[in-house]
Specification:
Length: about 300
């Protein structure tokens, strides 16, 4: 979320439409494994303000290794953007309650073989717990999964990030009627509701919901029974270890394994919030993830956090 990553190209996929229960139709892509009995079905959930196509190379990689893979843009973003964004009433919670739930139903209906899997980046690792059908998920791999409470930001960057996302962003959103992230070169444009939920989020996610709905948020999160391998990266200024733990604390019914990876583990000086989905990690991190997605085996046992 700190800067716009370089998008990848789309190759060898099917362009699909994903209908949500509330009538919104999302744009997405589906990669089919070239085998009759795939290893499983994977849904890739993007970070906030990041186009789904940034994850296309990873999706292609997974398809080549035997998985059916779905990528999609949340409402208000990329292929799911309305003609007039400033008039939309889309909220962050809708991305989980409506958009991810629709993606999950689509992959459940079309699953050919193997477990139902989710790869969630940043807020994309938190949103699955808001979906009604989340108990259908067998395993999740999350990377930097958090919901952007400023108190969890990296201490050395906390003041600068607070000014950027919790002062400048809501001010620009109020002025424009949506957040013009693309014009600023920060990320994609965001609907007003999404930007404001991020800017004004407190330490408890459910408190951004009306009082009468908060119990339902907690119930849905606790209903997730999937095994979760939660990756934190030591130089990620947003997805810090406290932020990862805060997210996992909502998944009270899941089996969670948090791990802390370091750039040196991959021969790098830096990785940050976005780096692991860059195709330069195809021979390292991407290959490692196959162990978890195929077998539920943690490929980094020495990095596990207690």
């Amino acid at each position: 979320m700190s800067q716009q990553p370089r998008p990848s190209l789309n190759e060898s996929s099917l362009s699909i439409s994903i209908p949500c229960r509330d009538g919104v139709v999302l744009g997405g892509h589906l990669w089919l494994a070239e085998k009759k009995r795939p290893e499983g079905s994977v849904i890739i959930n993007p970070a906030t303000g990041v186009l789904a196509r940034y994850y296309h190379r990873y999706a292609q990689f997974l398809a080549r290794h035997g998985f059916d893979v779905l990528t999609f843009d949340y409402r208000g973003i990329g292929q799911s953007r309305p003609q007039l964004l400033r008039r939309s009433r889309y909220r962050w919670r809708d991305w989980g309650e409506q958009d991810f739930d629709a993606a999950l139903r689509l992959m459940t209906d079309h699953r050919r073989n193997g477990p139902l899997l989710v790869v969630g980046h940043s807020v994309g690792g938190f949103l699955p717990g808001l979906a009604e059908n989340a108990p259908e998920i067998d395993r999740m791999l999350t990377v930097g999964a958090q919901y952007a409470w400023w108190g969890d930001y990296m201490p050395s960057r906390r003041a600068a990030l607070f000014l950027k996302w919790h002062v400048a962003m809501p001010a620009m959103t109020a002025l424009c009627g949506y957040f013009p992230g693309r014009r600023l070169g920060w990320l994609e444009d965001l609907p007003k509701g999404v930007a404001n939920e991020w800017s004004f989020r407190g330490p408890r996610f459910e408190r951004s919901h009306p009082v009468g709905e908060r119990w339902e948020v907690l119930r849905r999160m606790s209903a997730v029974k999937a095994s979760i391998l939660a990756v934190a990266v030591s130089d990620d200024e947003l997805g810090t270890v406290p932020a990862i733990r805060r997210t996992l604390n909502y998944y009270t019914g899941a089996q969670c394994q948090p791990v802390l990876l370091r750039p040196a583990d991959f021969g790098r000086d830096a990785i940050g919030h976005f780096g692991l989905f860059h195709d330069s990690h195809a021979a390292g991190f991407w290959v490692d993830t196959l162990s978890w997605l195929r077998e539920g085996r943690n490929p980094w046992p020495v990095a596990e956090l207690k």
